[in-house]
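note to self: dont lose this again. the chain is below, predicted strucutre after it. 305 aa total, dont forget to put it in the shared folder this time
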Amino acid sequence: MPSKKNQHRLLLVGAGIVIVVILVAGSKDLESNRSNSAFDGILGGGYDGEEEAGGKFMPMTAPSVGMHEETAYDMDMAQEPERMVIRSGALWAVVADVRVAVKDITDHADSIGGFTVTTEVQEYLPESGVRATVEIRVPQERFAEVIAFVRANVLRVTSEQVSGQDITEEFVDNQARLGNLQATETQLLSIMQKAYKIEDVLAVQRELTSIREQIERLEARQKFLRESVAMSKISVYLSTDEQHLPIIEEQTPWQPIAVAKSALRSLITTFQFLAEVVIWIVIFLPVWGTAWLLHRRYQRKGKKK
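---
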């Protein structure tokens, strides 16, 4: 027969094994719940309308339309989208004659299908020198050609910046949202034809107005993105004296709404983590409490002996 001390050790080992088994099972359940939650968050649908008891119109989910749109979206995503990049450039240059250089640059932009956005010529004292700022838009495929043209028609380029902004993800996402909204609009128009009660007609009309506003905003944004990609911006800063060239540092504008959203997401994540910790503590408290009581009991028995 094992001694009291060995019995004490066996009990502690058994309790440890039980705790490990529960931990493994709990972690699997938690991971499964997280996966299911993430999957549920992806699911969505359009709008549908039916008459409930009492004749009140209520917008409902339409699985058939949602499935159709998701299938179309998956087919579109299966094809690799063409990269959409907004290109821009800036050059700081010294020239012999500022006005002549400005005319050469703007004329060249016009000749290749571009256009002049702004032109500003300034005279500064006491040297009676001249400096100018020219901003042009040129077809993206001619971007490198125009940069080379400016370099070749100035005395010296003191600084040059070329950058690109990839907007492919935003454009594809907007296009998918636009397709879903247009499908929803079509369905609401169909519901409108079947509505007989005034309150039903008004409810559908409100939904249609909201959907149409969202569609128009997205269409305007997509048009802006297409035009920005098609026509690259080039800014040229010219002066007869390098010391009088402007120093321009492009800074990302402050976006308080984006900062607030980021802070809110972090706060929610923190609260979720704390809630999970509390849940785990509450669930395992009886196990740890039992193990602690057993340990104290055998300690007291050992002291009595």
